[in-house]
Design brief:
By secondary structure, this protein is of the alpha+beta class. Helices cover 46% and strands 16% of the residues. The protein binds calcium ion (2 copies). InterPro entries: C-type_lectin-like, C-type_lectin-like/link_sf, C-type_lectin/snaclec_domain, C-type_lectin_CS, CD209-like_CTLD, CTDL_fold.
Length: 208
């Protein structure tokens, strides 16, 4: 009887020991799993922060490149890289047409480009235009269509008190029919009939 009891107790002890060992090994597995999970989370967080750091650095480089390019663009094309046919002078942009047309049509064509026929109100601007037009005839924004002999710029201002560069003997209103002005040889101004066809100069403010 005592022997049986002893064997039972021994068996129970063994079972308990076995269970304890099993529990311990399962616990170890769970701890290891938890540690690996933690490690994965840490690695993920670290790589995420590195990726965001890299992308912010990349953005900075991109912005710097953009800034450099836009300042280079401004130096090369102050009137805008999309408007390379416009020439910059003194804070404004000028277009020298390649086609000849009447004064009225030239006025409309400048308008479609958000500009107007050129106003020459200084010697510096006259020099620029003179150099650029090289004895070719180009319409400017000056006419006496509203009142004979009263020459007004296209912005409504009176030309007489300001800078003028009329050719000697001009404006002569030849045949009583010359109401529009163009630059002529040596850049001097001449009045001619408005349906005459010549090149034209448009002017607009330079982009900010
Ligand atoms: Ca006239
Ligand atoms: Ca004339």
């Amino acid at each position: 009887m005592d022997k049986d009891r002893l064997q039972d107790e021994l068996r129970i002890f063994r079972d308990r020991n076995f269970l304890r060992q099993k529990l311990r090994s399962s616990l170890m597995v769970y701890v290891l799993l938890a540690l690996s999970y933690l490690l994965i989370v840490i690695l993920f967080a670290v790589s995420l922060s590195r990726v965001s750091m890299l992308s912010s650095q990349l953005n900075e480089v991109r912005n710097e490149l953009k800034r450099n390019n836009s300042s280079k663009d401004f130096k090369l094309f102050p009137c805008g890289p999309e408007a390379r046919e416009w020439e910059y002078f003194g804070g404004k942009c000028y277009y020298f047409s390649l086609r000849q047309t009447s004064w009225q049509r030239a006025k409309v064509l400048c308008g479609t480009e958000h500009s107007r026929l050129a106003i020459i109100n200084s010697r510096a601007k006259q020099n620029f235009i003179m150099y650029r037009t090289r004895n070719q005839r180009f319409w400017i924004g000056l006419s006496d269509q509203n009142s004979e002999g009263v020459w007004k710029w296209i912005d409504g201002s009176d030309s007489t008190p300001g800078f003028t560069y009329w050719k000697e003997g001009e404006p002569n209103d030849s045949d009583h029919n010359e109401d529009c002005a163009h630059v002529w040889t040596y850049g001097e101004w001449n009045d001619v009939h408005c349906t005459y066809e010549c090149y034209y100069i448009c002017e607009k403010p330079a982009p900010p």
